[in-house]
Amino acid sequence: MNPSAAAVSWNKFAAIQELGLLQSTSTTTAAGEEYNKNGNVNGVAGVAGGTTLSVLRVAVRARPLQQDELTDYKTCKECVSYTSDGRGVLVGKRIFAFDRVYGPMVGQEDVYLDCVKPLVDSCCAGYNATVLAYGQTGSGKTFTMGCGKNVPLLPETELGILPRAIRQLYSSIEERSSDAEFLIKCAFVEIHNEEIKDLLHPATPSKSISVREDAHGDIILAGVKEEVVTSFENMIRCLEYGSMFRTTGSTMMNQHSSRSHAIFTIIVEQRSLVHKLNALSNDVITAKFHLVDLAGSERVKRTGAVGMSFKESVTINCGLLALGNVISALGDERKKGRHVPYRQSKLTRVLQDSLGGNSRTCMIACISTAEINLEETLNTLKYANRACNIRNKPIINHDLHAIMLNQALQRELLLTTRMCCMDLEHGTSEPYSLENSLQCTSSLLQCLVEYRGREILPLDDVNAPLKSACHECEKREKQCLKLHEQIQESQFLVGKLQQEMHQLQTERDRYQVLLQPLAPLAALGMKPLLVLENVAKSLACCTLPRICFEQGLLHPKFPDHVAFLHKDATYKLDPSFPADDSLYPMISLPNSSIAGRDQEDIGWMQIVEFDDEKDHSWMSKQEDTMMIKDMAKPKMHIQISNIQLHRSVPMKWTMLITLSVVSLLLRRFSRVRQ
Length: 674
Ligand SMILES: Nc1ncnc2c1ncn2[C@@H]1O[C@H](COP(=O)(O)OP(=O)(O)OP(=O)(O)O)[C@@H](O)[C@H]1O
What we know:
Oligomer: single chain
Domain Kinesin motor: 55-390
Family: Belongs to the TRAFAC class myosin-kinesin ATPase superfamily. Kinesin family.
Radius of gyration: 51 Å
Organism: Sphagnum troendelagicum
CATH superfamily of the largest domain: Kinesin motor domain
Structural class: alpha+beta
Keywords: ATP-binding, Coiled coil, Microtubule, Motor protein, Nucleotide-binding
Bound molecules: adenosine-5'-triphosphate
Pfam families: Kinesin (PF00225)
């Protein structure tokens, strides 16, 4: 702080004190002395009932005369002087002492560092905090608070309390990022004509907003939507956006006069990342920081308010009067323990925590130094003087509801785990009971998440035990889902297999009928089914005679000739062979399977019996001829020539062909036996 502006020395201050001119000396200095004694920037006043009391700090700021005031002889004369210790202010013949007095030369930064920085620090430690700017219209409240328009365009020296506090808050968060996790929200409301308006959501009707007290006695603004903000820039944008909707007007005393009380609230939620032995101690702390730019107190005669402005002026003054009454009730030792009229106005109701409640509060009384405003300045100083004795009871705001939910969740998890272990041990684990427990746990988790209003953060950010509980829950849910899927798949497979089994049974019955003729093969020591299978396989890749040969179908006692017959086949005689008894019918595959193909492509098989001694020359003419010697008739050969079965022949047909071959062979066998 720059105390150079002090115009009155401490000696003069003491002299006036001796003359008995000092207003409310005992009360005002009491606060100041305590402040000095404790050397505590938060104005700690003592301990009562286990709660540390905090004195409401009061500072006075005088604004310099404006250019137009300096050029007007009526307004250019000053009436305010200051003590050299920076705590006393002299107006006319009266002197007042406060925690701090800032002369017109004191810059924005000094005011901020002195009055607000400690509050931001304590807010980061979990205490509620409030800064109130009070004063006559045009005395510099909006300038001091820094909640006017075009904040980003202002030079650093002109930045008010709000942008500086936001900047400090984010830098504190960054510094503490390794040991705590923060969620920052903000809300911006104005109280105009006894109606609350959500400046960040101007479409919200005022009627849907109400001031309530929650179960813990904290004051909440029901119906006002809080915005989650992740950076300094975002919050400044919120500030600017809300300022655009603030009710302002031009009066004879201030061209851009705020016609409402504006409250910008920063909500700081934090969770420690430093794990302690007891995981539940790792709870959530929430602190609210109200930055209040009150509407200016004014004398209607001087502001020239008429019509709507007149009504506005009246309600502004009523609100400030109610605030004054609350301040009196809280600050006057004689009225101690009496009813505090918080409900007299919306303003006092909203600020209930900040005045005499759970908050560290600083009031900055803004004054004009011009002699023309002497009366208003005196009123402001008297008003602020009464606030010096107010003692608040700030406490760290642990989120009790979150702790309770946390504990319930822990118990539920423990129970679920125990039940699962018991079930597993006794082999009585039932998926549905497990599922029920999991559902219960997950609804508890959901409850906690909704309560915290942390939709934008992943669930596992709530805290460490919850994180692992969440993880476990997710894992089990996935397992359940997977099991359900597997059951469904298996059921489908069973159905399919039953259908296939039915088809196979029908097929088997059919083949059994077909296989009846194979019984004699078994009598010969051959395994009919195996033979059939091998033949069918080989048919798909080899020539038929070779197969027959390789599979031993051509028994040593094989008859001298063989022919293929099938009911669906088309038979043709090869015209190139003489039509005598030795020529057997040629076989082709059924028409359906050769559609669109050349007959040659499918191949022809000719089986002919001849005596090689007689007709040797014919044999040599043939290609792809296979001679099979009949041991029983050494001179007789079976010639199977030019046999190719197309590979695309379906298995069904190869089976039928094979069956035909086999049945033919059998018939030949029986003939041979006869
Ligand atoms: N400390 C200061 N240094 C320089 N200029 C200041 C200072 N305080 C206020 N002003 C100027 O004085 C004028 C009035 O200030 P401001 O609008 O902040 O008053 P106010 O108390 O908010 O008025 P109202 O109650 O009518 O809204 C503005 O032009 C502002 O820039």
